[in-house]
Write a structure and sequence with these properties.
It contains 17 helices and 20 strands. The protein is of the alpha/beta class. The strands form four sheets. The protein has a six-stranded mixed β-sheet, sandwiched between helices. The chain folds into two domains: about 220 residues, P-loop containing nucleotide triphosphate hydrolases (Rossmann fold), CATH 3.40.50; about 240 residues, 3-Layer(aba) Sandwich (Rossmann fold). It binds adenosine-5'-triphosphate and magnesium ion. The site of adenosine-5'-triphosphate has 18 residues, from α1 and α14.
Length: about 500
Protein backbone atom coordinates (compact mmCIF):
# COMPACT_ATOMS: atom_id res chain seq x y z
CA UNK A 1 0.00 0.00 0.00
CA UNK A 2 2.90 2.33 -0.70
CA UNK A 3 0.67 4.62 -2.74
CA UNK A 4 -1.03 5.94 0.38
CA UNK A 5 2.24 7.15 1.90
CA UNK A 6 2.60 10.88 1.36
CA UNK A 7 5.78 11.33 3.34
CA UNK A 8 8.34 9.03 4.85
CA UNK A 9 11.27 9.90 7.12
CA UNK A 10 13.72 7.16 8.01
CA UNK A 11 16.62 6.95 10.45
CA UNK A 12 16.54 10.64 11.31
CA UNK A 13 19.39 11.48 13.66
CA UNK A 14 20.36 14.81 15.17
CA UNK A 15 22.71 15.91 17.93
CA UNK A 16 23.45 19.37 19.32
CA UNK A 17 26.96 19.93 20.66
CA UNK A 18 27.45 16.17 20.85
CA UNK A 19 24.20 15.60 22.76
CA UNK A 20 21.91 13.29 20.74
CA UNK A 21 18.38 14.68 20.47
CA UNK A 22 16.96 12.38 17.78
CA UNK A 23 18.15 8.79 17.63
CA UNK A 24 17.17 7.26 14.30
CA UNK A 25 13.50 8.20 14.01
CA UNK A 26 11.20 6.60 11.41
CA UNK A 27 8.03 8.52 10.75
CA UNK A 28 5.47 8.46 7.95
CA UNK A 29 2.36 10.34 6.97
CA UNK A 30 -0.56 9.23 4.78
CA UNK A 31 -2.55 11.36 2.37
CA UNK A 32 -5.42 13.08 4.16
CA UNK A 33 -4.28 11.97 7.58
CA UNK A 34 -3.69 13.76 10.88
CA UNK A 35 -0.68 12.13 12.51
CA UNK A 36 -0.21 13.28 16.09
CA UNK A 37 3.29 13.55 17.53
CA UNK A 38 3.47 13.19 21.29
CA UNK A 39 6.18 13.28 23.94
CA UNK A 40 7.41 15.01 27.05
CA UNK A 41 9.02 18.46 26.95
CA UNK A 42 12.37 18.06 25.24
CA UNK A 43 11.54 14.67 23.68
CA UNK A 44 12.51 15.96 20.25
CA UNK A 45 9.16 16.70 18.58
CA UNK A 46 9.92 20.22 17.41
CA UNK A 47 13.43 19.24 16.35
CA UNK A 48 12.06 16.47 14.10
CA UNK A 49 9.62 18.95 12.58
CA UNK A 50 12.34 21.56 12.09
CA UNK A 51 14.30 19.01 10.08
CA UNK A 52 11.23 18.37 7.97
CA UNK A 53 10.70 22.09 7.41
CA UNK A 54 14.35 22.71 6.59
CA UNK A 55 15.11 24.84 9.64
CA UNK A 56 17.66 22.29 10.94
CA UNK A 57 19.84 19.89 8.96
CA UNK A 58 19.69 16.23 10.00
CA UNK A 59 22.97 14.48 10.81
CA UNK A 60 21.66 11.37 9.07
CA UNK A 61 18.46 9.95 7.64
CA UNK A 62 16.30 10.09 4.54
CA UNK A 63 13.12 11.82 3.43
CA UNK A 64 10.76 10.94 0.62
CA UNK A 65 7.73 12.99 -0.40
CA UNK A 66 5.21 11.62 -2.92
CA UNK A 67 7.62 8.76 -3.52
CA UNK A 68 10.42 11.16 -4.50
CA UNK A 69 13.64 11.12 -2.49
CA UNK A 70 14.52 14.55 -1.06
CA UNK A 71 18.14 15.39 -0.32
CA UNK A 72 18.12 16.29 3.38
CA UNK A 73 21.65 17.63 3.33
CA UNK A 74 20.95 20.46 0.93
CA UNK A 75 17.55 21.09 2.54
CA UNK A 76 16.43 24.53 3.81
CA UNK A 77 13.15 26.31 4.60
CA UNK A 78 12.79 27.60 1.05
CA UNK A 79 13.31 24.13 -0.41
CA UNK A 80 10.78 22.70 2.05
CA UNK A 81 8.22 25.29 1.02
CA UNK A 82 8.89 24.61 -2.64
CA UNK A 83 8.06 20.93 -2.27
CA UNK A 84 4.90 21.78 -0.32
CA UNK A 85 5.76 21.63 3.39
CA UNK A 86 4.18 24.42 5.44
CA UNK A 87 4.77 24.93 9.15
CA UNK A 88 3.13 26.68 12.06
CA UNK A 89 5.99 26.79 14.55
CA UNK A 90 5.57 26.54 18.28
CA UNK A 91 6.56 30.19 18.65
CA UNK A 92 5.28 33.06 16.60
CA UNK A 93 7.07 34.23 13.51
CA UNK A 94 4.81 37.17 12.85
CA UNK A 95 6.12 40.66 12.25
CA UNK A 96 4.60 42.71 15.05
CA UNK A 97 4.57 46.18 13.53
CA UNK A 98 3.04 45.06 10.24
CA UNK A 99 -0.68 44.59 9.73
CA UNK A 100 -2.55 41.30 9.56
CA UNK A 101 -2.85 41.64 5.77
CA UNK A 102 0.84 42.43 5.36
CA UNK A 103 1.83 39.43 7.44
CA UNK A 104 -0.43 37.24 5.34
CA UNK A 105 1.10 38.60 2.16
CA UNK A 106 4.68 38.19 3.36
CA UNK A 107 5.39 35.03 1.33
CA UNK A 108 4.14 36.95 -1.73
CA UNK A 109 6.42 39.93 -1.04
CA UNK A 110 9.53 37.89 -0.47
CA UNK A 111 9.04 35.77 -3.55
CA UNK A 112 8.02 38.32 -6.12
CA UNK A 113 9.69 41.54 -4.99
CA UNK A 114 8.73 44.71 -6.86
CA UNK A 115 6.01 47.21 -6.01
CA UNK A 116 3.34 46.30 -3.50
CA UNK A 117 -0.05 45.82 -5.10
CA UNK A 118 -2.31 46.67 -2.18
CA UNK A 119 -5.48 45.47 -3.81
CA UNK A 120 -3.95 42.03 -4.15
CA UNK A 121 -2.61 42.10 -0.62
CA UNK A 122 -6.07 42.73 0.80
CA UNK A 123 -7.77 40.28 -1.53
CA UNK A 124 -5.25 37.65 -0.45
CA UNK A 125 -5.87 38.46 3.21
CA UNK A 126 -9.63 38.24 2.84
CA UNK A 127 -9.35 34.91 1.10
CA UNK A 128 -6.94 33.46 3.66
CA UNK A 129 -9.07 34.56 6.60
CA UNK A 130 -12.26 33.36 4.94
CA UNK A 131 -10.68 29.96 4.45
CA UNK A 132 -10.54 29.50 8.20
CA UNK A 133 -13.83 31.35 8.66
CA UNK A 134 -12.12 33.77 10.98
CA UNK A 135 -12.80 37.38 11.50
CA UNK A 136 -9.86 39.69 12.23
CA UNK A 137 -9.54 43.17 10.80
CA UNK A 138 -6.79 42.85 8.15
CA UNK A 139 -5.62 46.40 8.87
CA UNK A 140 -4.83 45.80 12.59
CA UNK A 141 -1.16 45.82 13.50
CA UNK A 142 -0.20 42.36 14.66
CA UNK A 143 1.34 43.58 17.91
CA UNK A 144 -2.11 44.70 19.06
CA UNK A 145 -3.65 41.25 18.65
CA UNK A 146 -4.23 38.97 21.64
CA UNK A 147 -2.26 35.71 21.60
CA UNK A 148 -5.15 33.61 20.36
CA UNK A 149 -5.64 35.80 17.29
CA UNK A 150 -1.92 35.74 16.55
CA UNK A 151 -2.13 31.97 16.62
CA UNK A 152 -5.08 31.89 14.22
CA UNK A 153 -3.21 34.27 11.92
CA UNK A 154 -0.16 31.96 11.86
CA UNK A 155 -2.46 29.12 10.89
CA UNK A 156 -4.10 31.18 8.16
CA UNK A 157 -0.66 32.05 6.73
CA UNK A 158 0.39 28.40 6.62
CA UNK A 159 -2.88 27.33 5.03
CA UNK A 160 -2.67 29.98 2.35
CA UNK A 161 0.49 28.38 0.98
CA UNK A 162 -1.36 25.44 -0.63
CA UNK A 163 0.90 22.88 0.99
CA UNK A 164 0.87 19.08 0.68
CA UNK A 165 2.07 18.67 4.24
CA UNK A 166 1.05 20.93 7.07
CA UNK A 167 2.95 20.90 10.36
CA UNK A 168 1.11 22.30 13.38
CA UNK A 169 3.33 22.55 16.46
CA UNK A 170 0.97 23.12 19.41
CA UNK A 171 -1.57 25.12 17.45
CA UNK A 172 -4.21 25.20 20.18
CA UNK A 173 -1.96 26.15 23.12
CA UNK A 174 -3.55 29.57 23.40
CA UNK A 175 -6.82 29.11 21.56
CA UNK A 176 -10.27 29.31 23.09
CA UNK A 177 -12.74 26.47 22.71
CA UNK A 178 -14.43 28.31 19.88
CA UNK A 179 -11.24 28.96 18.02
CA UNK A 180 -10.15 25.38 18.55
CA UNK A 181 -13.42 24.25 16.94
CA UNK A 182 -12.80 26.61 14.02
CA UNK A 183 -9.33 25.09 13.63
CA UNK A 184 -10.69 21.54 13.77
CA UNK A 185 -13.22 22.36 11.07
CA UNK A 186 -10.45 23.82 8.94
CA UNK A 187 -8.39 20.66 9.54
CA UNK A 188 -11.27 18.42 8.41
CA UNK A 189 -11.57 20.43 5.23
CA UNK A 190 -7.81 20.30 4.58
CA UNK A 191 -7.76 16.54 5.12
CA UNK A 192 -10.51 16.05 2.59
CA UNK A 193 -8.20 17.59 0.00
CA UNK A 194 -5.64 14.84 0.67
CA UNK A 195 -3.23 17.07 2.56
CA UNK A 196 -1.37 15.35 5.39
CA UNK A 197 -1.12 17.05 8.77
CA UNK A 198 1.41 16.49 11.53
CA UNK A 199 -0.04 17.70 14.80
CA UNK A 200 1.82 18.29 18.06
CA UNK A 201 -0.08 18.98 21.26
CA UNK A 202 0.09 18.52 25.02
CA UNK A 203 -3.69 18.62 25.29
CA UNK A 204 -4.31 14.91 25.40
CA UNK A 205 -8.07 15.23 25.39
CA UNK A 206 -8.12 16.71 21.88
CA UNK A 207 -5.95 14.06 20.25
CA UNK A 208 -8.70 11.54 19.68
CA UNK A 209 -10.97 14.17 18.26
CA UNK A 210 -8.44 15.35 15.73
CA UNK A 211 -5.94 12.53 15.16
CA UNK A 212 -5.91 9.39 13.02
CA UNK A 213 -2.62 7.94 14.28
CA UNK A 214 -0.35 8.79 17.19
CA UNK A 215 3.43 8.50 17.37
CA UNK A 216 5.14 8.81 20.73
CA UNK A 217 8.71 10.02 21.17
CA UNK A 218 10.68 9.69 24.38
CA UNK A 219 14.21 11.06 24.82
CA UNK A 220 14.77 11.23 21.10
CA UNK A 221 13.54 7.72 20.38
CA UNK A 222 10.36 6.51 18.76
CA UNK A 223 8.44 4.45 21.28
CA UNK A 224 5.28 3.54 19.37
CA UNK A 225 2.87 4.39 16.55
CA UNK A 226 -0.77 3.48 17.14
CA UNK A 227 -4.20 4.29 15.74
CA UNK A 228 -5.93 6.91 17.88
CA UNK A 229 -9.19 4.97 17.78
CA UNK A 230 -9.17 2.80 20.85
CA UNK A 231 -5.99 4.29 22.33
CA UNK A 232 -6.44 4.85 26.06
CA UNK A 233 -5.17 8.13 27.52
CA UNK A 234 -3.57 6.32 30.47
CA UNK A 235 -1.69 4.04 28.11
CA UNK A 236 -0.53 6.99 26.00
CA UNK A 237 0.74 8.80 29.10
CA UNK A 238 2.58 5.69 30.25
CA UNK A 239 4.28 5.39 26.88
CA UNK A 240 5.20 9.08 26.97
CA UNK A 241 6.76 9.20 30.40
CA UNK A 242 7.83 5.57 30.67
CA UNK A 243 5.94 4.96 33.91
CA UNK A 244 2.53 5.40 35.51
CA UNK A 245 1.55 8.97 36.29
CA UNK A 246 1.19 9.52 40.03
CA UNK A 247 -2.43 10.19 40.97
CA UNK A 248 -3.05 13.61 42.43
CA UNK A 249 -4.67 13.56 45.81
CA UNK A 250 -6.78 16.48 47.04
CA UNK A 251 -4.63 18.72 49.19
CA UNK A 252 -5.90 20.77 52.12
CA UNK A 253 -5.79 24.54 51.76
CA UNK A 254 -2.97 26.20 53.71
CA UNK A 255 -4.64 29.62 53.65
CA UNK A 256 -4.78 31.59 56.88
CA UNK A 257 -7.45 34.07 57.74
CA UNK A 258 -5.63 37.30 56.89
CA UNK A 259 -5.56 39.19 53.64
CA UNK A 260 -2.27 39.32 51.78
CA UNK A 261 -3.70 41.32 48.93
CA UNK A 262 -6.96 43.06 48.19
CA UNK A 263 -8.39 45.17 45.38
CA UNK A 264 -11.41 47.45 45.79
CA UNK A 265 -13.29 48.63 42.73
CA UNK A 266 -10.33 48.16 40.43
CA UNK A 267 -10.77 49.61 36.95
CA UNK A 268 -8.34 49.92 34.08
CA UNK A 269 -8.22 50.92 30.45
CA UNK A 270 -9.45 47.41 29.68
CA UNK A 271 -11.75 46.75 32.61
CA UNK A 272 -14.79 48.98 32.63
CA UNK A 273 -16.82 47.65 35.54
CA UNK A 274 -15.09 47.76 38.93
CA UNK A 275 -13.61 44.52 40.27
CA UNK A 276 -13.10 43.65 43.94
CA UNK A 277 -11.58 40.55 45.49
CA UNK A 278 -9.06 39.50 48.10
CA UNK A 279 -6.27 36.95 48.35
CA UNK A 280 -5.50 35.46 51.76
CA UNK A 281 -2.05 34.64 53.06
CA UNK A 282 -0.85 31.23 51.90
CA UNK A 283 -3.79 30.97 49.54
CA UNK A 284 -3.76 29.74 45.94
CA UNK A 285 -6.59 31.69 44.35
CA UNK A 286 -7.83 30.38 41.01
CA UNK A 287 -9.18 32.72 38.36
CA UNK A 288 -10.85 30.97 35.47
CA UNK A 289 -13.18 31.72 32.58
CA UNK A 290 -13.16 31.36 28.82
CA UNK A 291 -10.51 32.94 26.63
CA UNK A 292 -11.45 36.63 26.37
CA UNK A 293 -13.28 36.72 29.71
CA UNK A 294 -10.86 39.30 31.12
CA UNK A 295 -8.46 37.15 33.16
CA UNK A 296 -5.31 38.46 31.50
CA UNK A 297 -6.60 42.04 31.59
CA UNK A 298 -7.14 41.71 35.33
CA UNK A 299 -3.61 40.38 35.82
CA UNK A 300 -2.18 43.21 33.75
CA UNK A 301 -4.08 45.78 35.77
CA UNK A 302 -2.84 44.35 39.08
CA UNK A 303 0.76 44.18 37.92
CA UNK A 304 0.83 47.75 36.64
CA UNK A 305 1.07 46.82 32.96
CA UNK A 306 -2.21 48.58 32.16
CA UNK A 307 -3.01 52.01 33.55
CA UNK A 308 -5.51 51.97 36.40
CA UNK A 309 -8.48 54.26 36.05
CA UNK A 310 -10.10 53.62 39.40
CA UNK A 311 -10.07 51.70 42.66
CA UNK A 312 -7.55 50.95 45.36
CA UNK A 313 -5.04 48.17 45.99
CA UNK A 314 -3.93 46.91 49.41
CA UNK A 315 -0.93 44.78 50.32
CA UNK A 316 -1.10 43.51 53.88
CA UNK A 317 -4.04 45.94 54.32
CA UNK A 318 -1.76 48.88 53.51
CA UNK A 319 -2.78 50.89 50.45
CA UNK A 320 -0.23 50.76 47.63
CA UNK A 321 -0.16 52.32 44.20
CA UNK A 322 1.09 49.92 41.55
CA UNK A 323 1.48 52.09 38.48
CA UNK A 324 4.25 50.18 36.71
CA UNK A 325 5.64 46.62 36.58
CA UNK A 326 8.84 47.97 38.21
CA UNK A 327 6.77 49.18 41.14
CA UNK A 328 5.04 45.81 41.32
CA UNK A 329 8.37 43.98 41.45
CA UNK A 330 9.67 46.38 44.11
CA UNK A 331 6.60 45.55 46.21
CA UNK A 332 7.31 41.82 45.92
CA UNK A 333 4.97 40.84 43.09
CA UNK A 334 5.91 38.46 40.29
CA UNK A 335 4.04 37.92 37.03
CA UNK A 336 4.28 34.96 34.67
CA UNK A 337 2.66 36.32 31.51
CA UNK A 338 0.60 34.28 29.07
CA UNK A 339 2.68 35.29 26.04
CA UNK A 340 5.96 33.87 27.31
CA UNK A 341 8.19 34.48 24.33
CA UNK A 342 7.34 38.12 24.03
CA UNK A 343 7.10 39.06 27.68
CA UNK A 344 8.90 36.55 29.80
CA UNK A 345 12.40 35.84 28.58
CA UNK A 346 15.52 37.34 27.06
CA UNK A 347 15.93 34.71 24.38
CA UNK A 348 19.56 35.38 23.55
CA UNK A 349 20.68 35.25 27.17
CA UNK A 350 21.53 32.02 28.94
CA UNK A 351 19.28 30.07 31.24
CA UNK A 352 21.38 31.32 34.14
CA UNK A 353 21.15 34.99 33.18
CA UNK A 354 17.42 34.79 32.66
CA UNK A 355 16.85 33.37 36.10
CA UNK A 356 19.26 35.73 37.80
CA UNK A 357 17.77 38.82 36.15
CA UNK A 358 14.82 38.44 38.46
CA UNK A 359 17.19 37.86 41.37
CA UNK A 360 19.20 41.04 40.94
CA UNK A 361 17.18 43.02 43.41
CA UNK A 362 17.37 40.25 46.01
CA UNK A 363 21.05 39.36 45.86
CA UNK A 364 21.99 42.94 46.55
CA UNK A 365 25.34 44.05 47.83
CA UNK A 366 28.32 45.82 46.47
CA UNK A 367 29.52 42.74 44.66
CA UNK A 368 27.05 40.58 42.92
CA UNK A 369 27.31 37.26 44.73
CA UNK A 370 28.06 34.83 41.89
CA UNK A 371 28.28 31.77 44.12
CA UNK A 372 24.83 32.44 45.52
CA UNK A 373 23.57 33.16 42.03
CA UNK A 374 24.87 29.87 40.72
CA UNK A 375 23.41 27.96 43.64
CA UNK A 376 19.96 29.44 43.23
CA UNK A 377 19.94 28.93 39.49
CA UNK A 378 21.06 25.31 39.78
CA UNK A 379 18.45 24.70 42.43
CA UNK A 380 15.63 26.00 40.30
CA UNK A 381 16.79 24.13 37.18
CA UNK A 382 16.89 20.95 39.21
CA UNK A 383 13.60 21.41 41.00
CA UNK A 384 11.81 21.84 37.70
CA UNK A 385 13.75 19.30 35.73
CA UNK A 386 14.63 21.80 33.00
CA UNK A 387 16.27 19.91 30.14
CA UNK A 388 19.36 21.91 29.18
CA UNK A 389 22.87 21.19 28.07
CA UNK A 390 23.93 23.40 31.00
CA UNK A 391 22.93 26.65 32.62
CA UNK A 392 24.90 28.65 30.08
CA UNK A 393 22.72 27.33 27.24
CA UNK A 394 20.89 30.16 25.50
CA UNK A 395 17.19 30.09 26.29
CA UNK A 396 16.23 30.28 22.62
CA UNK A 397 17.52 26.74 22.07
CA UNK A 398 15.45 25.12 24.81
CA UNK A 399 12.38 23.14 23.87
CA UNK A 400 9.11 25.05 24.16
CA UNK A 401 8.05 23.52 27.46
CA UNK A 402 11.48 23.92 28.98
CA UNK A 403 11.47 27.62 28.12
CA UNK A 404 8.33 27.95 30.14
CA UNK A 405 9.91 26.20 33.08
CA UNK A 406 12.72 28.77 33.01
CA UNK A 407 10.28 31.68 33.17
CA UNK A 408 8.60 29.96 36.03
CA UNK A 409 11.91 29.28 37.78
CA UNK A 410 12.84 32.89 37.34
CA UNK A 411 9.98 34.06 39.51
CA UNK A 412 10.13 31.22 42.01
CA UNK A 413 13.77 31.90 42.76
CA UNK A 414 13.15 35.63 42.93
CA UNK A 415 11.29 34.73 46.11
CA UNK A 416 8.64 37.31 45.59
CA UNK A 417 5.61 37.14 47.86
CA UNK A 418 2.72 37.41 45.48
CA UNK A 419 2.95 35.41 42.28
CA UNK A 420 0.50 35.98 39.46
CA UNK A 421 0.60 33.05 37.05
CA UNK A 422 -1.21 33.46 33.74
CA UNK A 423 -1.80 30.05 32.10
CA UNK A 424 1.34 28.57 33.71
CA UNK A 425 1.02 25.09 32.21
CA UNK A 426 0.40 25.87 28.53
CA UNK A 427 2.75 23.68 26.53
CA UNK A 428 3.92 21.76 29.61
CA UNK A 429 3.73 17.97 29.44
CA UNK A 430 1.50 15.98 31.81
CA UNK A 431 4.33 14.85 34.06
CA UNK A 432 5.97 18.26 34.41
CA UNK A 433 2.58 19.81 35.14
CA UNK A 434 2.42 17.89 38.38
CA UNK A 435 5.90 19.18 39.30
CA UNK A 436 4.72 22.72 38.72
CA UNK A 437 1.65 22.24 40.91
CA UNK A 438 3.89 20.90 43.68
CA UNK A 439 6.27 23.84 43.34
CA UNK A 440 3.38 26.27 43.66
CA UNK A 441 2.22 24.54 46.86
CA UNK A 442 5.79 24.55 48.22
CA UNK A 443 6.03 28.23 47.40
CA UNK A 444 3.07 29.16 49.62
CA UNK A 445 3.92 26.58 52.26
CA UNK A 446 7.36 28.06 52.84
CA UNK A 447 6.33 31.42 54.20
CA UNK A 448 3.25 33.04 55.78
CA UNK A 449 3.56 36.20 53.74
CA UNK A 450 2.95 34.56 50.39
CA UNK A 451 0.08 33.92 48.02
CA UNK A 452 -0.57 32.90 44.42
CA UNK A 453 -3.10 34.04 41.86
CA UNK A 454 -3.44 31.11 39.49
CA UNK A 455 -5.07 32.06 36.20
CA UNK A 456 -6.08 29.28 33.86
CA UNK A 457 -8.77 28.45 31.34
CA UNK A 458 -8.17 24.75 32.05
CA UNK A 459 -10.98 24.20 34.52
CA UNK A 460 -9.83 20.75 35.55
CA UNK A 461 -6.48 22.10 36.65
CA UNK A 462 -8.07 25.02 38.49
CA UNK A 463 -10.21 22.51 40.41
CA UNK A 464 -7.16 20.39 41.24
CA UNK A 465 -4.73 23.09 42.25
CA UNK A 466 -6.50 26.03 43.85
CA UNK A 467 -8.08 26.75 47.22
CA UNK A 468 -10.82 29.03 45.93
CA UNK A 469 -12.07 29.86 42.44
CA UNK A 470 -13.24 33.13 40.91
CA UNK A 471 -15.02 32.73 37.59
CA UNK A 472 -14.75 35.60 35.13
CA UNK A 473 -16.96 36.44 32.17
CA UNK A 474 -17.40 39.66 30.25
CA UNK A 475 -14.53 41.22 32.25
CA UNK A 476 -16.36 40.77 35.56
CA UNK A 477 -16.17 38.27 38.37
CA UNK A 478 -19.42 36.30 38.07
CA UNK A 479 -18.97 33.63 40.72
CA UNK A 480 -16.85 32.60 43.68
CA UNK A 481 -16.67 28.83 44.18
CA UNK A 482 -15.15 26.28 46.52
CA UNK A 483 -13.25 23.72 44.41
CA UNK A 484 -14.22 20.97 46.83
CA UNK A 485 -17.93 21.68 46.35
CA UNK A 486 -18.11 22.37 42.65
CA UNK A 487 -17.70 20.74 39.26
CA UNK A 488 -16.28 21.60 35.88
CA UNK A 489 -19.81 21.71 34.45
CA UNK A 490 -20.85 24.26 37.03
CA UNK A 491 -17.87 26.51 36.33
CA UNK A 492 -18.56 26.26 32.64
CA UNK A 493 -22.21 27.12 33.16
CA UNK A 494 -21.23 30.30 35.01
CA UNK A 495 -18.77 31.32 32.29
CA UNK A 496 -21.32 30.79 29.56
CA UNK A 497 -24.41 32.16 31.30
CA UNK A 498 -22.76 35.45 32.04
CA UNK A 499 -21.61 35.71 28.44
CA UNK A 500 -25.20 35.43 27.31
CA UNK A 501 -26.32 38.02 29.83
CA UNK A 502 -23.70 40.45 28.59
CA UNK A 503 -24.74 40.14 24.95
N1 LIG B 1 19.33 24.75 18.36
C1 LIG B 1 19.51 23.96 19.44
N2 LIG B 1 20.66 23.96 20.12
C2 LIG B 1 20.85 23.17 21.17
N3 LIG B 1 19.92 22.33 21.66
C3 LIG B 1 18.74 22.28 21.05
C4 LIG B 1 18.46 23.09 19.90
N4 LIG B 1 17.19 22.82 19.51
C5 LIG B 1 16.71 21.90 20.35
N5 LIG B 1 17.64 21.56 21.27
C6 LIG B 1 17.48 20.56 22.34
O1 LIG B 1 16.88 19.41 21.80
C7 LIG B 1 16.00 18.79 22.74
C8 LIG B 1 14.67 18.52 22.11
O2 LIG B 1 14.00 19.75 21.92
P1 LIG B 1 12.63 19.90 21.15
O3 LIG B 1 12.39 21.35 21.00
O4 LIG B 1 12.65 19.08 19.92
O5 LIG B 1 11.61 19.26 22.20
P2 LIG B 1 10.02 19.12 22.12
O6 LIG B 1 9.72 17.66 22.11
O7 LIG B 1 9.50 19.93 21.02
O8 LIG B 1 9.58 19.67 23.55
P3 LIG B 1 8.35 20.68 23.99
O9 LIG B 1 7.18 19.82 24.27
O10 LIG B 1 8.87 21.28 25.25
O11 LIG B 1 8.14 21.67 22.93
C9 LIG B 1 15.95 19.72 23.94
O12 LIG B 1 16.74 19.18 24.96
C10 LIG B 1 16.54 21.03 23.41
O13 LIG B 1 17.20 21.73 24.43
MG1 LIG C 1 8.37 21.66 20.95
Amino acid sequence: MTEQILLRMEGITKAFFGVPVLKGIDFDLHYGEVHVLLGENGAGKSTLMKILSGAYTADAGTLALDGQAVDLQGFNPRAAEDIGIATVYQHFHLIPHLSVAENLAMPMFTREGGAVRWKEVYAHADEALARIHYDIDPKTQVRHLPVSQKQMLEIAIALSKNAKVLILDEPTASLSRNETEILFEAIAEIKSRGIGIIYISHKLEELKQVGDRITILRDGEKIATLPSDGAEVDEIVRLMIGKELAQSQGVESLAIDQNLFRVEGLQSEQIASPISFSLRKKEILGITGLVGSGKTELAQAIFGVDKLTGGATFLDEREVRIDSPQKAVALGLGFLPEDRDADGLCLNLSVKDNISLALMSKLRGFFFDTAAEKRTVLESIRSMDVKTTGMSQQVQYLSGGNKQKVVFGKWLSAKCNLLILDEPTIGIDVGARKDIYDLIRDFVAENDERGVIFISSDMTEVLDVTDRILVMAGRRIVAELDPKQTTKQRILRYSLQANKAAE
